[in-house]
Amino acid sequence: MTVGLEHYLTVSALLFGLGLYAVLTRRNAVALLMGVELILNAANLNFVAFARFVDGGVEGHIVAAFVIVLAAAEAAVALAIVLAMFRNFGTVNVDTVNRLKR
Amino acid sequence: MADHLLSWMTFAPVIGAAVIAGLPGRYKDFTKWIAAAATAVPLLLAVQLFLQFDRTTANMQFTEHYTWIKSFNIEYFLGVDGLSVPMVLLTALLSFLCIIASWRIEKAVKGYFSLFLLLEAGMMGVFCALDFFLFYVFWEVMLLPMYFLIGIWGGPRKEYAAIKFFLYTLAGSVLMLLAMIAFYYNVKDPVTGGHTFNMLHMMDQANHGGILALSNVRFVIWMGLFIGFAIKVPVFPFHTWLPDAHVEAPTAVSVILAGVLLKMGTYGLLRISYPMLPDQAVGFMVPMAILGAVNILYGAFCAMAQTDMKKLVAYSSVSHMGYVLLGMSAMNEAGINGAVLQMFNHGTITAMMFLCVGVIYDRAHHRDINGFGGLGLQLPVYTSVFSFALFAAVGLPGLSGFVSEAMVFIGAFPTHRTITIVSALGIVVGAAYVLWMLQRVFLGEKNAKYDSLPEISARELCTLVPIGIIVLVLGVYPMPVLDLMKVSLNHLIKVVAG
Amino acid sequence: MSEHAILLTALAILLLPLLSYAVLFFLGKKLPRQGDWLGTGLLGVAWLLSLRIFARFWAVGDPGLRIEGGVRWLDLGRFTADAGILVDGMTAVMLVVVTTVSFLVHLFSIGYMHGDRRYERFFAFLGFFTFSMLGIVLSNSLLFLYVFWELVGLASYLLIGFFFHKPSAAAANKKAFLTNRVGDFGFFLGILIFFTAYGTFNYFELFAAAHLDPLSGGLLTLAGVGLFMGCVGKSAQAPLHIWLPDAMEGPTPVSALIHAATMVAAGVYMVARLLPLFDPNALLVVAYVGAITAFLGATIAVVKTDIKKSLAYSTISQLGYMVMAMGVGVASAGMFHLWTHAFFKALLFLGSGSVIHAVHTQEMPLMGGLRRKMPITFWTFLIATLAISGVPFFSGFYSKDAILAGALAFGMTKTHYVPFLLALIAAGLTAFYMFRMVFLTFMGKPRDEERHHHAHESPWTMTAPLVTLAVLAVVSSGWRGPSEGWFSRFVAPYDMARIVAQAPGAPHADEVHAVPAAAHDEHALPQEPHGEPAHVEATHEAPAHGEAAHGDAHDAHVRHQAHLTAMVLSILVAGLGILVSWLTYVRGRISAPAVLARLPRVHHVLQNMYFFDEFYAATVYRFTLWFSWLNGAFDRLVIDGIVNGMGYLTRVLSWFAGLADRYVVDGLVNGVGAVIQGAGEGFRRVQTGRVQSYLAYACFSVLLLVFVFRAL
Q1: Which pTM was predicted?
Q2: Could you identify which of B86, C118, C320, C596 might form a hypothetical disulfide with C294, taking C-beta atoms 3.0 to 4.6 angstroms apart as the criterion?
Q3: B199-208, B337-346, C475-484: segment of lowest average pLDDT
């Protein structure tokens, strides 16, 4: 059995689904971030896979590298927010931090 | 002031009303003096108008012509001719005297006098306006103060009377409004070619176009205008607002109502209906004469049945306005001049009668004819004055009512022979109800209840004597007023009847 | 006196009483003696001026001469009316009648009204009346005739109601005014017809126009009857005579002045003045009405016991004579009777006033035997009685005789004998009831000692007028009777040819202008020797001239015959009347109660004045009141009912409209709102504020869109 594009995409979809599931269901802000990371990596996998099997160029790889950098930056900022959140509210549960709504 | 005489006459009371409205309510006397001053100005200007009016021309005089609302060609257009000058004089005189007659008003003084002044402005405006829209505006302006004057300062059934008056008049206004719009869209301004509200243009048949060329439409418009004005006159069967309004209204308002407001109906007919729709006017002569006869006799008989003095006088107004209609229907010199003279004379004579009734009402607090008796011994001066007014109303020669009634009959007889003969019965019935009232109130044995009734006061005499002098002078020599109007009215006859 | 001076004098005569009125009305209370001297004095001046005009016309001796002057009163262009003064012989006569009687009544009132609380007002009203009456006499147009006609009505109203605190007086003056108004209605219509036809109010212009171009058909008759209605009202002719007896509620001097001598004669004057406007049919009506009235009045006067009421019916009867004279074609005789009657009837009234003043009652059964107590009153009263009864050598004889002669001639030429017969009976009755009055009042024994004891002769201001009038009652027909025809110097039939020639705009006015004076002299001269007024005047004065000229010789013969017959008959019936009266009330040969008991029906009818009042009360008054009640009720119930019904209907409709508004229109509006609100409520739930749910929606939406686009 040769590993083709379908397999990569299947893994990527699973990854995306897991990430999405985490994002939609988790109340913990850190868990949410992790879900976002999963989604981003699912996208990265797609870029690399399409670059390998369809395009043959390097643009997919470059974008994947770019996304990794962006994800690092995003994680840094988001974790800083989560830290500030924890400091102000004493919790990282996103549902309790709803002062704007009230 | 000389340049804008008519505007000053119309708006001086408005200024007065504004000043009064701005004044704190506790300065009651001051309020009255301001009101007197604000009505004295139009009166003085009316004297000037009387002196300067050119009696040799039928053209409009003292005209003021400005654009008001440009997009609809509405103009601020004032002017007077021989038809309106007597009415303007009457309005100015009666308004001033009514302020004096209202001196003892105590309830909401500020409101009363400011509304009264507004009323005068409306009346002046109606008689001076030469733009139909402006005419209509003034017509409505006058309505509102009247409503409040009856509705607030009136007698026991004031709300009923005020609403009846208001609704009746409003119904008339609506018909007039429709007619006005019909004219607006179908009369061409000869200069610009656009639509116009200018009455003088509307009077010129050459400018008529559109649906105004259809005689059926013209008849409908005529009827609309006629009913609108007939309500004001009031013509049988639209007259029942009048007795109620008179009975409930305070004295001065009754005076204005009978003295000036009723004239607006016939004024409107002569100013608007006749010259604008001359063909319809000629065609309507016989019905109008019949209505006049009905008014004369029906009003007189109804007056005879009354036991309330004010109601009697009110029905006598219905009767006397019938003479105006009869004269107008004659369509000749004696008839139309007589009709307009009768409008003026009825204004003065009825004013006297209402003022006299007010005098006794202030003292005895009722107006039941059968509740008096023998007042002639108790109040000789008052009796003389009231009898004077009553005999003027009977049409006694030497007093002004006779001249106009005789002219009306002389004019109407050749045109409507039978109707005139029937109407002439009114001189008998008219004498009957007046003398019967005179007998029951003033003659006979003195009613002991009224032993301490005070005689008429100097202030009250001041309101009555000037009118009395006018009635007497015009009865002996009516030309001063006839001179004012005859050229214009003769021109009108020429326009209408050819 | 130039024409101008005469006109100015006439104007002064007219205005002097007005001045008296104005001054006394406003200042009377402040003047010494309440100004009675002023009113009387001014009237005295007016009287002298009238005599001057009278003398002037006597000197000229031309009844056709007339002086007119006027000013434009109304001018509307085509429609004009003038106010003018006319002075001619007839005017001169009337001026003297009015001012004489008025002056004497003023004088009499100084005594009679003494101490009345409205003393000055009485003189003021007398002045006003005199002014108005002179206006009737002096005006030269129908319009102003009507004006003053109404003004005398007012004066009469004020004076009848002078004691207005008495309910009877208050009712009487209203009755007088209204009854007159009924007559004036017809009068005014007559004026309208003539003005409409000829476009002028001026008498003589109308005469000329009507002569040249008579109205066609019945219109002329109608107009004439209309004018005559005015006379019927004012001169108390049947059936409008009912107001005059009630008018006796006024003070007696008023009755003498207004309701005997002057105002009631105005109707007669009017018909005489306007005679050319009456056609033969109208004149026939006039003759019959006059004759019936003469008879009616005389019969009622016979049974009345109130001295003033009896005199009032006598006045009605005598006015009937005058009116009949107009109708039967002897207008000048009628005017002559007006002249003589004015003096003797005023005298009778003033004499009765003197009696009433003395005994304080008007009931003759309570008087009697006053002859010795009041000699002057008695003798003057007797003279007047002789005059009115038609005893020869007293003024009334000549005038009444002329009328009877005219009536007989009329009967012979036109075969209408009824007027003559009625008048003849009335003449006998007149003599009877007048002597009855004298006998009951002055002769015999006093029937009320108390009253008789207090009675005394009146002061000189009251007796002087009596004496003056008594002299006039004898001599007013001329010193030696009217045989020299002095009255025809003043009043004669209108000379139509002259009037037509003088009228402005008459055909060939320029050519004819010089002629009339000469032509008239020829015409007038032969009249003088002719003698008796009946001769001169009997020329039928109706506009039917061709007819008159036709049988001239025959008519003259008839008239001559009639005159003799009438004279003999009238002396006979007068003598008979006096004799019966004497037998009844002095000798007691005939018992009045017995006679009356024999004729209960007649007595009942006469006592109730032929039930005229009852008739009117049951018909005219009742109908009028009922009709006015009906109108009032109609107005209140039907017209106001419709108006209020409309109002009610509007309110009912508006209530329904309100319901519809609330449930239908508002229902719609609210429904939309509710839907939107419900939707919002639903969508609000979507908006949780939870980012994760949003994200979930977004994902599902994307999936949904994917499916949707896949399906496409």
Answers
A1: 0.84
A2: C320
A3: C475-484
ipTM over 0.90: yes
Q: Which amino acid is at C63?
A: P
Chain C: give the shortest CA distance to residue B475, in Å: 10
CB atoms within 10 A of CB C413: 18
B253/chain C closest Cα distance in angstroms: 22
**Do the Cβ atoms of A24 and C699 come within 8 Å?**
yes
**Which residue in this structure is represented by tokens 């019959």?**
C288
Interatomic CA distance for residues A54 and C94, integer angstroms: 146
The two three-digit tokens of residue C556, written as one number:
């003259």
A78 touches C at CB < 8 Å: no
Q: Taking residues B368-372, report their average pLDDT.
A: 88
| pLDDT tens digit sequence for A43-95 | 999 999 888 888 778 888 899 999 999 999 999 999 998 898 888 888 888 77
Cβ within 8 Å, pair C195-B420: no
B neighbours by CB contacts (3+ pairs under 8 Å) = C
Residue-range definition of the domain harbouring residue B296: 284-498
Residues 304-363 of B with CB under 8 A from C: 304-306, 332-334, 337
Quote the number of domains for chain B: 1
- Please list every residue in chain B whose beta carbon sits closer than 8 Å to the beta carbon of residue C147: 397-398, 402
CA gap B302, C561 in Å, rounded: 59
Dihedral pair phi/psi, residue C139, rounded to 5°: -70, 155
Say which residues have a Cβ less than 8 Å from residue B31's Cβ, sequence separation at least 6: B20, B23, B109, B110, B113
DSSP B373: -
C80-88 and C66-75: which strand pairing? antiparallel
Which amino acid is it at B333?
E
Amino acid in the structure at residue A72: A
Cβ <8 Å between A98 and C689: yes
Q: Which residues of C touch A (CB under 8 A)?
A: 689-692, 695-696, 699
Residue C546 confidence (pLDDT) above 80: no
A partners (3+ CB pairs within 8 A) are: C
Which DSSP symbol is given to A93? B
Q: Considering only CB atoms, which chain C residues are within 8 Å of B391?
A: 154
A-C C-beta contacts closer than 8 Å: 15
Greater pLDDT, C137 or C542: C137
For chain C, what percent of residues have pLDDT higher than 90?
37
Nearest to A23 among C689, C690, C692 (CB): C692
Percent of chain C residues topping a pLDDT of 70: 92
Instruction: Give the rounded percent of residues in chain B with a pLDDT score beyond 70.
Output: 100
pLDDT confidence bin for C507, thresholds 50/70/90 = low
Other beta carbons less than 10 A from residue C213's beta carbon: 10
Do A20 and C691 count as a contact with CB atoms less than 8 A apart? Answer: no
Architecture category of domain A5-89 in CATH: Orthogonal Bundle (1.10)
Strand locations in C62-197 (E): 66-75, 80-88
Confidence grade of residue C536 (pLDDT, cut at 50, 70, 90): very low
Among chain B residues, the shortest Cα distance to C78 is held by B333
Within a domain: B168: no
Arithmetic mean of pLDDT over chain C: 85
What distances in angstroms separate CA C649 from CA B36, B227, C187, C656, one per listed residue? Answer: 44, 21, 49, 11
Q: What radius of gyration, in Å, describes the C-alpha atoms of chain A? A: 17
pLDDT in tens, B210-230: 888 888 999 999 999 999 999
The alpha carbon of residue C267 is apart from the nearest alpha carbon of chain B, in Å, by 18
Q: Do A94 and C695 touch (CB under 8 A)?
A: no
Q: Is the pLDDT of residue C509 over 70?
A: no
Per-residue pLDDT reduced to its tens digit, B448-498 = 888 888 888 899 999 999 999 999 999 999 999 999 998 999 999 998 887
* 3-state DSSP assignment of residue B154: coil
3-state secondary structure of C695: helix
Chain C CB within 8 Å of residue B446 CB = yes
